[in-house]
Amino acid sequence: MKALVKEKAEPGLRLMEVPEPVIGPGDVLIKVLRTGICGTDLHIRAWDGWAQQAISAPLVVGHEFVGEVVETGRDVADVTVGDLVSGEGHLVCGKCRNCLAGRRHLCRATVGLGVGRDGAFAEYVALPASNVWVHRVPVDLDIAAIFDPFGNAVHTALSFPLVGEDVLITGAGPIGLMAAAVARHAGARNVVITDVSDERLALARKVGVSLALNVAESTIADGQRELGLREGFDVGLEMSGNPRAMRDMVANMTHGGKIAMLGLPSEEFAVDWARIVTSMITIKGIYGREMFETWYAMSVLLEGGLDLAPVVTGRYSHRDFQSAFDDAASGRGGKVILDWTS
């Protein structure tokens, strides 16, 4: 089968022939239809410091996908051939304290699809049936392909109550955009998103934010004044991993405000802990999705009319993966999709 492979410990990816995966008794084999390019995939292609530490070549990359089940293992009962599925890319041990307590997203032995084992940028991918999400209601294939990052957005946005709250989102990348759409859909009063890309801020306006703020030109405090906010933001969603963004968020929260932090910094940085203490601000780290509560919430949000169409801005054949990756790496658009049927 054809697959996108990190063949050697060097920059770049290669579309090449690899053996089709073999499934075990508890696995399913999935014919991949579409995939989404993630920031993780960009790191792997660039072969940066993180990738050099995390990846062992050769490796089939990719973890965001939608496909059709074509084979099931002997012990699989709830997934059938022909099902349209996406996959939870965090494979857990099932034996640790958190797994046994049903908190699988907190497993300390998590292995990442397309990072710690061969992934989904291929014509076929194998997964344990316990990591498969079956789409029981109709869903657009582009959206089904990005359920993994959509789940990051939902997990982050719904960490704290949003009804009637003023929400600040730092970072208008694809996950920030989806979080903004979720926050608006979930009943936030104001949703403000910040970035330095005018193109991404334009996308944010399409998903219905109250204010899209270019922080290279205006401050978050300016945004507060424009909206008439006198006490700061109730909920913050940090999506950028940028030290300045986190510090600016803390400085603009109301007393008792709550911050969910998904953005992954590249290194340690200082924050005003005195402000966090005296303002009684709660900070919660977010990694991945809650299995499978977040997935249920995603499907329900879409059934309830949540529109993520503006977030998908690029569609390419898998054969044109170089252009697709360049598009995703530009930092100007939303999600980029690879079609594995063309």
UniProtKB/TrEMBL annotation:
Pathway(s) it belongs to: Amino-acid degradation; L-threonine degradation via oxydo-reductase pathway; glycine from L-threonine: step 1/2; Metabolic intermediate biosynthesis; 2-deoxystreptamine biosynthesis; 2-deoxystreptamine from D-glucose 6-phosphate: step 3/4
SUPFAM superfamilies referenced in this protein's UniProt entry, alphabetically: GroES-like, NAD(P)-binding Rossmann-fold domains
Positions annotated to bind Zn(2+) 1: 38, 63-64
Note accompanying the cofactor annotation: Binds 2 Zn(2+) ions per subunit.
Pfam families named in the record: ADH_N, ADH_zinc_N
Subcellular location: Cytoplasm
Catalytic activity: L-threonine + NAD(+) = (2S)-2-amino-3-oxobutanoate + NADH + H(+); 2-deoxy-scyllo-inosamine + NAD(+) = 3-amino-2,3-dideoxy-scyllo-inosose + NADH + H(+); 2-deoxy-scyllo-inosamine + NADP(+) = 3-amino-2,3-dideoxy-scyllo-inosose + NADPH + H(+)
Cofactor(s), names only, from the UniProt record: Zn(2+)
Domain of life: Bacteria
GO MF term (any one): L-threonine 3-dehydrogenase activity
Annotated positions binding Zn(2+) 2: 93, 96, 99, 107
Position of the signal peptide: none
Keywords from the named record: Cytoplasm, Metal-binding, NAD, Oxidoreductase, Zinc
Positions with a binding annotation for NAD(+): 175, 195, 200, 262-264, 286-287
Record site: Important for catalytic activity for the proton relay mechanism but does not participate directly in the coordination of zinc atom: 148
GO CC list: cytoplasm
Main subcellular localisation: cytoplasm
Domain Alcohol dehydrogenase-like C-terminal span(s) in chain numbering: 174-300
Catalytic residues (positions): 40 (charge relay system), 43 (charge relay system)
Subunit structure: Homotetramer.
Function of the molecule: Catalyzes the oxidation of 2-deoxy-scyllo-inosamine (DOIA) with NAD(+) or NADP(+), forming 3-amino-2,3-dideoxy-scyllo-inosose (amino-DOI). Catalyzes the NAD(+)-dependent oxidation of L-threonine to 2-amino-3-ketobutyrate.
Family: Belongs to the zinc-containing alcohol dehydrogenase family. DOIA dehydrogenase subfamily.
Name of this protein: L-threonine 3-dehydrogenase
Gene that encodes the chain: tdh
